[in-house]
Amino acid sequence: MAYGKPESKPTQASAMEQLLIWLREDLMGELQAINQYQAHIDNIDDAEVKELLSHIRDDEKEHVAELTHLIARIDAIQREKFATDHTMAPEERVVGAEEGEALTVGSLFGKK
Ligand SMILES: [Fe+2]
After folding, report:
1. 101 Cα–ligand 1 center, Å
2. Exposed site from 8, 28, 41, 72, fewest CB < 10 Å?
3. What is the per-residue pLDDT across 67-97, written as a single tens digit (0 to 9) for each?
4. pLDDT band at 18, cuts 50/70/90?
5. CA of 54 relative to ligand 1 center, distance in Å
6. Ion ligand 1: residues, Cβ under 5 Å
7. Ligand 1 center–CA 55 separation, angstroms
8. 78 Cα–ligand 1 center, Å
9. How far is CA 45 from CA 17, 19, 48, 56, in A?
10. Cβ(20)–Cβ(70) below 8 Å
């Protein structure tokens, strides 16, 4: 599947795959933004500017968390990987097993 805007109207399954591709691209952008803000923070001497950029950087971290959770809600395999991540204690995982099991693609799109 190509990245970017699809050339024709997608089927329901491919629409979901396209949505996941876009969300993963959005996630990459947020991570790159964090690194860029951090690099600028590390190279700027002005305390006021550093403080503002630090605030913005932290907002980007919130966006990473939001996108990560959204992807996990839509992608069952990703959700399972978060729920069973052996590198983290269960209470420290991004998505808990109980939370992950309770959500489905259908439940996501029925919510506002
Ligand atoms: Fe952002």
Report:
1. 28
2. 8
3. 999 999 999 999 999 999 888 888 877 776 5
4. very high
5. 13
6. 30, 60, 63
7. 12
8. 21
9. 44, 40, 9, 17
10. no
Domain boundaries, the chain: 15-109
The whole-number pLDDT of residue 96 equals: 63
In the chain, % helix, strand, coil (3-state, to 5) comes to 75, 0, 25
Q: How far is the CA of 74 from the centre of ligand 1 (A)?
A: 20
Q: Is residue 54 a contact partner of residue 42, using CB atoms and an 8 Å limit?
A: no
Token pair recorded at residue 20: 């996941």
